[in-house]
Amino acid sequence: MKCIINGKLVLRDSVKENFAVVFDKRIKKIANTNDINISEYEIIDAKGMYVCPGLCDIHIHGYMGADVSDGDADGIKVMAQGIIKNGVTAWCPTTMTVSKREIETAFDAVRKVKNSSGYYGARILGVNSEGPFINPSKKGAQAEEHILAPDPDFILANKDIVKLFTIAPEVCGALEAIEKIKKESNVLISMGHTNATFEQAKTGIDSGVSHTTHLFNAMTPLTHRSPGVVGAALSDDNVSVELIADTFHIDKGLFGLIAKIKKDNLCLITDCIRAGGMADGDYTLGGQPVRKEGIKCLMPDGTIAGSVLELNKAILNILENTNLEIYQAVNCASYNPAKVLGQDNEIGSIEVEKRADFMIADDKFNVAMTILDGEIRYKGE
Ligand SMILES: [Zn+2]
Prior knowledge:
Layout: E1 2-10, E2 15-23, E3 27-32, E4 42-45, E5 50-53, E6 55-60, E7 62-63, E8 66-67, H1 73-84, E9 88-95, H2 100-114, E10 123-124, E11 127-133, H3 152-157, E12 162-167, H4 174-184, E13 188-191, H5 198-207, E14 211-212, H6 228-235, E15 240-244, H7 255-262, E16 266-269, E17 281-285, E18 288-293, E19 296-298, H8 311-321, H9 326-331, H10 335-340, E20 358-361, E21 367-372, E22 375-379
Parallel strand pairs: 1-4, 1-5, 6-9, 9-10, 9-11, 11-12, 12-13, 13-14, 14-15, 15-16
Antiparallel strand pairs: 1-2, 2-3, 5-20, 7-8, 17-18, 18-19, 20-21, 21-22
Zinc ion binds at residues 59, 61, 94, 130, 271, 306.
């Protein structure tokens, strides 16, 4: 068994110094270092850094040149191994609104990697299907020609692999689809790419929506006489939200307000595209051209097209722009998304009997080591 010592242990509700964590594939013991006979274990010295739970990214399209919508199992493995370097140990490969055939091919590629034996990278929880049942007027970077009328059977036929999907609750047939999917599966239903009014969003929530795709982006905004989807998502304690905390998609001045309102229902995501981890230049997203310049990814008409954010950096952005405690900011990228997907009995926090997934990072959240299922899978220089 292994034991991490000399770290600041980031637990769900506190940060503990002089504590050690003992694990094999699962966490076996969390105790004061003085109460552990360290000679019994293979020691990992955290050198005073934060020992966090492995991170969980539930909305990411691409990384290191690969894109889930390519439908290529090898590309999904490239991503799974790439994001390990950012402390991510669990993720949902996320499809774009491409053609139905291409979406199905991508689902199959994810199934193939998820069901393969041996190590392939960060653990795949299941697919996040962004669309195709969205509103063309809020398509953002999604291809309009591939937007479809809501078809609950498409999601239900793939409920073995789809963990969550995005739908615009106001489009014709959406409420019936939401109700059927809610009744016949555990798939998480997220509102997004939506032009719904506040009332339409509330009706969607009453029908089974319980999550929000990248809050503020590609949805009706919050204004005082028209609270929109943003108002509905913020005012309902049973609705969780995703946030792209790159400081470009959302002004950093709002981070604290959103965190204060949504608490454990705030999930940091990257919405990263294939340009993530790559040099500035020209790439594609869902078959459309995208240019990466610094932290921005734009289509030729100026539409924002995903991000190149890395999840460990999102935690730092939240910490630097709110008064959240370290453990609260880390929860937003580990425990909260795990809970939203019903995986919090297995992953998302450092607790006895959960999987031994850890990110060891310095105070700027640069990742020094990532451990998955008790094995060191990344070690920084
Ligand atoms: Zn996305």
